[in-house]
Design goal:
The protein is of the alpha+beta class. It has 5 helices and 4 strands. Helices cover about 35% and strands about 20% of the residues. The longest helix is centred in the first third of the chain and has 17 residues.
């Protein structure tokens, strides 16, 4: 379960990265977090990675280990943001290898929900974003994914 400190760190890490890109901070939405938590619990029970049918944007992080996992909210967001290294600034747009990064910094997204489920050796983190990012229409990436 994403406790209050996990949620706060998750939000603060998003907003620190967004600030680097001159993008306004997001606010945590408790209703969205409840939905994200329910989906994270579902993924843990299934042991599989898949997106929900939400209309919101969604990033999913998972990790498996034979040793006990103590994941922080920052680690999941750092993993998504690390895709910046593959983003093609001279040809903005969606790619499967950078979609987590672009959603994290998507300028028009203003609300965030987070859920985390673990059994100690598997962990799933679900981040949900409203309004959804990664809208692949002309000019949207140029307007929403700003260089640091």
């Amino acid at each position: 379960m994403a406790d209050e400190s996990f949620q706060q760190e998750f939000l603060e890490t998003h907003n620190a990265y967004r600030k680097k890109h001159n993008t306004p901070p997001m606010a945590l939405n408790s209703q969205m977090s409840a939905v994200a938590q329910k989906w994270a619990d579902h993924l843990l029970a299934k042991g599989a990675l898949q997106h929900s049918d939400t209309d919101d944007g969604e990033n999913i992080y998972n990790m498996f280990s034979s040793a006990a996992i103590k994941l922080t909210g920052k680690e999941a967001v750092d993993s998504w943001y690390s895709e910046i290294k593959d983003y093609n600034w001279s040809s903005p747009g969606f790619t499967g290898s950078t979609g987590h990064f672009t959603q994290v910094v998507w300028k028009d997204s203003t609300e965030l929900g987070v859920g985390m489920a673990t059994d100690g050796n598997k962990v799933f983190v679900v981040g949900q974003y409203r309004p959804a990012g990664n809208m692949n229409m002309s000019g949207y990436f140029e307007k929403n994914v700003l260089q640091a």
